[in-house]
Amino acid sequence: MIKSSDAGRTRQALRDATMQGHQRVDALFADFALDSEGGYRAFLTAHGRALSALEPAARPNRPRLPLLAQDLAALGATLPQPLPLRAAMGEGYRWGLLYALEGSRLGGAVLARQVGRGLPHSYLSAIHEKGEWLAFQRALESAAAEGGEGWLEDAVQGALAAFALFAAAGAEQKIPAHG
Question: How far is CA 162 from the centre of its chain?
């Protein structure tokens, strides 16, 4: 059992609890060729399947789904149907989803540099503005402190669900990176 009294360590607890899932997602998406139109379209389509399920549930302050849809449209594709996400969730679960989504902005900044010349990259370029990641971490810690018994366990479940959704979408859409 994870104790919510360790609220000062919420981000680290989430990171530790989701490391395997995060690594699996990173490994799956590393196989997408972001420098080719087909590979990049497949990458965005997979992200679209996960993000279109996660953002409505997580309610981020700066949603990226419209940017992803814009990039897909520029590639002649439409936003895919969302993967199913467990409907019954509390605030801890929602914060876990947010943790995974906001963390993915950090990875997006790295991936944006791999996008082929001339390909749209609004989605991956939607990085945190100055101080935004720190503000999110503070809000996460505050929510954990106020969340009560079971909040952190719920947050871990939300983050794990987000990583699992990205992994499922990536595995479904996977094409060889350089094939």
Answer: 7
Residue range 33-45, pLDDT digits in tens:
999 999 999 999 9
- Report the CATH number at residue 134: 1.20.910.10
Please choose, from the candidates 149, 122, 143, 113, the residue with its C-alpha nearest in 3D space to the C-alpha of residue 62.
122
Task: Give the torsion through C-alpha atoms of 116, 118, 120, 125, to 10 deg.
Answer: 60
Residue 1 inside a domain? The answer is no
For the segment 87-134, what is each residue's pLDDT rounded down to a tens digit? 667 999 999 999 999 999 999 989 999 999 999 999 999 999 999 999
CA torsion through residues 72, 74, 77, 79, sign: positive
Domain of 40? 8-173
- Domain membership of residue 2 (yes or no) is no
Contacts of 164 (CB under 8 A, 6+ apart): 21
Q: From CA 78, how far away is CA 38, in angstroms rounded?
A: 14
